[in-house]
């Protein structure tokens, strides 16, 4: 693909840092980078090389890249203590005005897992969520990584979404990758079989299969890590101008230009858990017209419809609040719509009626999600409070 970071022509066999890193294949890309599987000929291991946009393409982002590296270094420094749920950076350097970062090699991202699931043979077109046992396991892993970022590092991730959560490769979970060439795990692929109700993650030399009816086997089979610290920042320097988070996972305080806090991640996390369980984006702005203003309005209307009225305290705080709300707290352009009649929100109904979750499951999941999706950031639970929620116990 003609991605802008391909300004440096990369193909299998290309090498970086005086031949140390040899490119094998492309692992993925994001809005600001391409990521390659490379062989580290000094450490004798497979690693992932993230090559960011050329400095000239988006010089605005250059400063943010420096912060990404600073935070990634901080993670490695603190990590020795306890955290295995945030991606580790091994090295970084500049190559012809591209910022390059070298990471541990991880497996598929959760978007890939969801896509495979929905296009399974049994149900070729239907969007489908993952079994709740798997969703709970993923949620626990993500929360423990987020807990580390928020509490140990005072860092807000600012871009939680399925694309940025990566599965770990089977035996890499508890041991270092083997140095012996033949035994290396390459590449890791995940697949989920709805018919069999099992999830398998395999590499050339190992396959882990988790049976979804058995929570313990799911827990033992795999973990996942938070990646992409590209929008992350320290709590003390939270941005007031830059728009962070990817649209569907963006919290109301960002839309309204109000103060940011770690609670912004909790909102995105809630949106992501809904999506893992249903296969559908919770706040999708596909019906919205093109301009950012219309998308924001539509986004706020979706929130209102699903979660209930937005409290006056929220509609009157934030630099842009007046753009979207009238002084009586009603959403502009939506005054006459059915919105105003909606009472307390209907997340539970949505889960049950539209996404087919059994009543008890829908109720329990809604109980877990509603506090995460509180319009008032300060009322959202912290990561440690989420971790002890009964929905997450085995
Ligand atoms: P975004 O558009 O979300 O800001 P980005 O340009 O910052 O993305 P990343 O999210 O860091 O880039 O990486 C892009 C993709 O590359 C990921 O979604 C993932 O699929 C893959 N990838 C990233 N890091 C690794 C890794 N360490 N191991 C394996 N694959 C990876
Ligand atoms: Mg990304
Ligand atoms: Mg990013």
Would you mind describing this structure in some detail?
The chain contains twelve helices and 13 strands. It has 394 residues and is of the alpha+beta class. The strands form four sheets. It has a six-stranded antiparallel sheet with strand order 1-2-3-4-6-5, covered by helices on one side. It has a three-stranded antiparallel sheet with strand order 9-10-11. It has a two-stranded antiparallel sheet with strand order 7-13. A hairpin with a 4-residue loop joins strand 10 (198-202) and strand 11. Helix 3 packs antiparallel against helix 6, helix 6 (263-278) packs antiparallel against helix 11 and helix 10 packs antiparallel against helix 11 (359-372). The radius of gyration is 21 Å and the shape is globular. The termini are far apart. 41% of the residues are buried. One magnesium ion is lined by residues 30, 32, 159, 228, 230-231. It catalyses: L-seryl-[protein] + ATP = O-phospho-L-seryl-[protein] + ADP + H(+); L-threonyl-[protein] + ATP = O-phospho-L-threonyl-[protein] + ADP + H(+). Residues 21-392 form the Protein kinase domain. ATP binds at residue 50.
